[in-house]
């Protein structure tokens, strides 16, 4: 089929594509991984919870994180992906405030807010980070795109992957989250039942 679109050879394209993930494995990220792990242990020991939120695919990553941290990592988790909650809070407080309002309604003092956004600029997550910090809650963020994004600036622990390729950044965010889960378990292979 010749539709006029240039497609690189499969191997060259894949080599380039997968090379874009390599910075995620650099030791520069180890400190954040260790710091988040330590924070999770503190949350678990204090009976707190991790509250996860994001928009779009980041909401799916948040939900996956909540399940794995709760089930495997033994750190209670909560996410705000319930349609009734989202539509109620967005309708009553504005979409830009719905996550902050969810944090307001569900947070306890020993909790941590985990916010995921490729751009780091979505008003709903940025406002949630600002609210959480004002209330003395720790904020952990997973962002990409530009290094000066406001969510990154408003975080206590900031996981940042410098790429504007959404699928790559989202995959890296998932990898970093599940790495910390496995750190809590203490090994990469284990029974999940």
UniProtKB/TrEMBL annotation:
SIS domain ranges (all copies): 40-191
Pfam families associated with the record: SIS_2 (PF13580)
Protein name: SIS domain-containing protein
């Amino acid at each position: 089929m010749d539709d006029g679109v240039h497609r690189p050879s499969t191997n060259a394209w894949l080599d380039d594509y997968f090379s874009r993930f390599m910075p995620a494995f650099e030791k520069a990220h180890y400190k954040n991984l260790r710091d988040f792990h330590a924070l999770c242990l503190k949350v678990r020991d204090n009976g707190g919870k991790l509250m996860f939120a994001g928009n779009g695919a980041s909401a799916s990553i948040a939900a996956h994180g909540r399940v794995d941290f709760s089930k495997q990592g033994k750190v209670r988790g909560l996410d705000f992906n319930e349609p009734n909650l989202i539509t109620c809070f967005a309708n009553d407080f504005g979409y830009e405030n719905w996550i902050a309002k969810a944090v307001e309604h569900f947070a306890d003092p020993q909790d941590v807010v985990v916010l995921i956004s490729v751009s780091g600029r979505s008003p709903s997550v940025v406002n949630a980070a600002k609210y959480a910090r004002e209330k003395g809650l720790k904020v952990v963020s997973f962002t990409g795109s530009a290094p000066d994004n406001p969510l990154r600036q408003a975080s206590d622990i900031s996981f940042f992957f410098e790429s504007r390729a959404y699928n790559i950044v989202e995959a890296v965010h998932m990898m970093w989250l599940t790495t910390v889960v496995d750190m809590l378990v203490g090994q990469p292979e284990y029974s999940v039942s």
